[in-house]
């Protein structure tokens, strides 16, 4: 990172590919932000190889539910289903906040190979978050079922200064608490990331 700081952004190119947990992937995106040109790769399970995110945008959009029912709640759960459904009973093991759902048309674990699509959906996500902030939401609890590259892109696009605090959670299937830990992101005036545990 030091060599990046010492160079001209126009002369730098970052290659990203990862298989980390959702909270740490989102955090990586937040930390890299818009630092120069970033080329993103993801693991293609079918081809068993790393693949560049560069395909065409299929136009799929998020359906948004629950925004009108939050009634001024300061904290909400934002369940964003990109590649797999997010179950209400599993959310209930962890959260007791109003829920907003973003559900992608034709949920698919293989529909993310377009950077244009990822950027567009990240912007749709941000518009929902801005709407929630306008309704008085101060803290988001984000549950995100998405491929690694999508999580990374969403983290890059999250506005560090003007959006609410956000905690991004890890899913543990079959556990009594389905989302047992998360990372509170260094945004909204917070200088450092912090791991939080659900008790």
UniProtKB/TrEMBL annotation:
<dbReference type="InterPro" id="IPR040836">
    <property type="entry name" value="SAVED"/>
</dbReference>
<protein>
    <submittedName>
        <fullName>SAVED domain-containing protein</fullName>
    </submittedName>
</protein>
<dbReference type="Pfam" id="PF18145">
    <property type="entry name" value="SAVED"/>
</dbReference>
<feature type="domain" description="SMODS-associated and fused to various effectors">
    <location>
        <begin position="7"/>
        <end position="185"/>
    </location>
</feature>
């Amino acid at each position: 990172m030091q060599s990046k700081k010492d160079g001209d952004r126009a002369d730098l190119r970052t290659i990203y590919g990862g298989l980390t947990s959702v909270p740490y992937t989102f955090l990586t995106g937040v930390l890299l932000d818009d630092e120069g040109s970033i080329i993103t790769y993801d693991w293609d399970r079918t081809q068993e190889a790393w693949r560049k995110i560069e395909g065409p945008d299929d136009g799929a959009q998020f359906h948004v539910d629950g925004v009108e029912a939050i009634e001024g709640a300061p904290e909400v759960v934002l369940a964003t289903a990109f590649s797999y459904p997010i179950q209400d009973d599993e959310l209930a093991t962890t959260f007791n906040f109003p829920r907003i759902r973003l559900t992608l048309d034709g949920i698919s674990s293989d529909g993310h190979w377009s950077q244009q699509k990822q950027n567009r959906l990240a912007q749709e996500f941000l518009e929902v978050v801005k709407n929630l902030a306008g309704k008085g939401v101060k803290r988001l609890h984000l549950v995100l079922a998405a491929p690694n590259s999508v999580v990374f892109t969403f983290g890059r696009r999250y506005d560090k200064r003007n959006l609410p605090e956000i905690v991004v959670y890890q899913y543990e299937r079959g556990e009594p608490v389905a989302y047992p830990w998360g990372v509170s992101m260094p945004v909204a005036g917070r200088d450092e990331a912090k791991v939080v545990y659900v008790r």
